[in-house]
Each structure stands twice: as structure tokens, then as C-alpha cells.
Amino acid sequence: MTSYDLHIAGTRGAADHGWLKSFHTFSFANYYDPKRIHFGALRVLNDDTVSGGMGFGQHPHDNMEIISIPLEGDLEHKDSMGNTTVIRHGEIQVMSAGTGIYHSEYNRNKDAAVKFLQIWIFPNKKNVTPRYDQIELNPANRANKFDQILSPSADDAGVWIHQDAWFHIGKFDAGVSAEYSIKKAGNGLYVFVLSGEVTVDGQALASRDGLGIRDAASVSFSEMSQDAEILLMEVPMQL
To answer: What Pfam families is this protein classified in (predicted)?
Structure first.
């Protein structure tokens, strides 16, 4: 039987460090909720706003797939693999931390905030060679449909990670309906509303609301508001 985990935006953990304002869908740093540790392989979903010129200094990670999706502004990235780059809205970044990496993320602009989603996925392989990838997405591909932006395969659309996971983004006109079919039996789907409103399997969601869906073959989306933008994260439920 299909079950649902509803996470209304206002119930997320919140942290205000002055230069950083962050909302945590799942337990992270000083926010802890035993009922919100992870959703299957989806461990972290942070909604971050970083003030001009500020950012995260160099810090380590290992054995985690780390995905960044910029929503506004320019995020400057440096890492121990020798990568120095800027990630902008319309792009997606992925790092396989594997045996261990160090990286920093800073707001490149002094006069405007940068907003981005920081997502961590448990990998299906440990101690892999660390790697980095970043691609530009085509916004036209998500018009009134779900566009794949991440998968388990380097030969498929979007970036790839060491996990049987698929991410999609869609942006919709008012009144459009859509459906998503689960790609791998046993996977769950986490729906995160970036903007607007949508009804998902009968559950009304607004901006920054999240809904975890277990034991479903497909999921329906209806009653879209104008410019509703939705991020789908299909992940294994068994680790």
C-alpha cells in the first residue's frame, strides 16, 4: 500500500548564522528530528541562502554523493581534485566524495545572495575514486514535463551518481497535469516544490513543501499553479 511522508515547508529545521540561512528537510547539524533522518538513500535536502561574498570554507567529505542545484546567483566552487569553477542557476553540480575530498563553496557576488539546494545521497559503492561533474541544463526541456537531470548512468541524460537514483525537474503552466512512473521497483519518490502549487496524489503542496512517497508504481500531479516548478528525486528505500 502506498504511504506518504508530508513535510510542510514551515516544519523544516531552520538555522540562521547571519551569512547563511538554511532550511533542513532532514536532520542536519544542530537540527535533529528522529522521524526525519533520511528518506531512503536521500540523506540531506538543504535549502540554503548565502550572503554576498560569504560561503563554506574548505571542509571534507567521504562516501557520499553530493548534488548542488543553484536557484539564484553564482556559487564559486574549489576542491582538492583541482577543480575551480562557478555554478549558476540552470546548472547542476555533482561530486562523488568516495575515498575523500575537500571543497569550498562561496557566493561569488558581493552584492547579491546566492540560493541553492544541497542534496546528499548515500552511494551504492564505497571508497570509489572521487570525481566532479557540472553541466548546463536546458530550461526548455522542462516546459510542462519532467526533464531528467540525474541518473545512475553516464550515458543517460543529466549528471550521474553511484546510486540507482533519478532526478527530474518540471515547470508547468496552470492547469497542466502530469504523471511520473517509478523507474526501479522498490524505489521511493521525494517531491520537492521549488515554487507554486500542485496536488500530488490528492495532497495539496505549496512552495518548499516536500512529500515522500513509498510503494507506488506511479505518481500523479494535477491542479498546477502558473509556473509551478517541481523537483523529483527517485531513490532506493533500502540501504
So the answer is: Pirin (PF02678), Pirin_C_2 (PF17954)
